[in-house]
Amino acid sequence: MGFETLVAEVGKALVEKQAMIVTAESCTGGMIAEALTSIAGSTAWFDRAYITYSYESKKEMLGVSETTIQKKGAISQECVVEMAVAALQQSHARVSVACSGIAGPGGGTPDKPVGTVWIAWAMQGHDRVETQKFLFSGDRLAVREQTTEAALMGVMKLLQGAAE
Predict the structure, then answer these.
(1) Bridge partner list, 48
(2) What is the pLDDT of residues 46-69, one digit of tens each?
């Protein structure tokens, strides 16, 4: 993986903002949290992680609504927004990142092929949750690694754009 430089930049930006981060992960299975905690000193800015792989865990741990799951699906903008917002509300963090997608090799559909991933970023004090849909290529590991990198880059972008 090689996220050390990016994680160090994220950690520095979080320290400068006096903020902690929380993750809410599905398709990455904790890979974002693993990357964030892979460097010494992350206790200063990493609060916790939610790994909500199943529909039930998304509903039970993060309060994702049954309506969202039934009408939009777990791989949707609506789902990751609910995940990101709930993770913030249920933690001591000021920043959250949430992801849900299809890492493969199976599980894809014509509407949501393998590699489809939604990521959401939220920050306390900001009116809206940032979201982006991706279509990554490669095998399961490649999709998960690309999701982790995109999630971390989005955190940096959010922090750099945040008012002091």
Answers:
(1) 22
(2) 999 999 999 999 999 999 999 999
Comparing CA positions, the residue from 53, 27, 33 lying closest to residue 112 is: 27
Nearest alpha carbon to residue 129 among 148, 154, 100, 149: 154
Contact 87, 63 (CB under 8 A): no
What angle, 0 to 180 degrees and rounded to 10, lies between the N-to-C axes of helices 77-89 and 55-62?
40
Cα maximum dimension of the chain: 44
Choices 3.90.950.20, 3.40.50.300, 3.40.50.11810, 2.40.10.120: CATH for 4-161: 3.90.950.20
Banded model confidence at residue 147, pLDDT cuts 50, 70, 90:
very high
Q: Give the three-class secondary structure for 149.
A: helix
In degrees, rounded to 5, the angle at the alpha carbon of residue 99 between the alpha carbons of residues 94 and 101 is 175
> What pLDDT score does 163 carry?
54
Phi (first) and psi of residue 81, to 5 degrees: -65, -50
